[in-house]
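Ticket #4471: structure output looks truncated?

Reporter: J.K.
Steps to reproduce: submitted the chain below (382 residues) through the standard prediction queue, then opened the result file.
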Amino acid sequence: MSGNTSCILVVGSTGTGKSTLIGLCTGVPVNTSGGTSECTLDIKEFREKDNEAGPVWIDSVGFDGTDSKRSDEEAFQYILKFLQDKKISHVVGIIWTVNPDDREAAKLQEQAKLINKFKEGVVWNNVIIAVKKTRGNARRDGAGALAAAGRYCNKDSVKTIGYALLEQMDENEKPFWTSQTQTNRMKMGIMTQKEAKVLIEDTLRTLPPLFQVVFRNNKCVDCGVECDSRLLPLSCHILKEPVHPAQPEPFHPLTAISKHAVHEPKLVHVGKVESSEHKEGGKGKVDGAGLATGVATGILTGSVIPVIGPAMSLLGGGSVTIKVISTWSCCGKSVDSEGCESQFPCCGKPVSSAGCQEVYQCCSSCNLAICNVHKHSISFLF
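Returned output as attached by the reporter:
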């Protein structure tokens, strides 16, 4: 750069005459597209002949270019990174080349937004809108670009020029305009290359002092990239990474039902044991074998308990046996009989009753606790 740290930056869509304009102003041959095909695939710098100490002219990659893999935002970052790498800190002016369009098209809005990023608000004092192939009224033909710029500044203060180069006219128009006086041609914006160069240079001289492009490093707290915020990668991660935006939320996928902790009911008695005494007496001799039988019967059955009177009475020829009979009050059956009603041992309720506890069908081992099945909501961060 030979110590030169200032530039004139030419930006715009592919096919709007950026390279042609730079060739006019520098006197250096510059490849031109001649249509909508992109000729500037990389950013290039040019020095004006006989003015090596002056600002360099930068031919940028085109916005809205034919490279479908490159967005306008990426094209802007290429330009900004070029300035940073070349240590170009000041901008004399930005020439925004456009085609005639009185509509504020979306692409013009996007380009105005990117131009504003060079130095928000202030940059428009140093912007010139150059309308290609205008016919006499540059502000009318560039109304779309002016409206887009008006989102960030007073559009009436933005300088606008336009021209159609006589040398580039087709053979049908060229003879007619060649025969016209310079005054008549200029009124309609028809200019020679030399005349167009004078117009551009005169307009550049009306701009305020150059402005500085300031770079401030920032750090992304997510991926750790450090650079100027305008140069941060357009995506935080190279690959899509599935993440959970919230903490997992425990839940049961199936509803709870009533169940008994013990599945099989059992027969039980629901009443109390009741006992009654019955006396049996008589005369006669009770031999030892009969007495032994009565005692054994009472012990085994639990329902007849022989009570032996005084030994002298029993052995003297008479005895009284008192039978104690025990039964269940609920059914009248003996105490050793099978239960009379079916119940669940876990709660003592009859078989016809509902379950005694809530159990989720998805995890029968738990009651109201979670069963570790998590409901997920997936989103992507780019």
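Triage note (M.O.): checked the attachment and the full token line is present. The mean pLDDT is 79.
Status: closed, working as intended.
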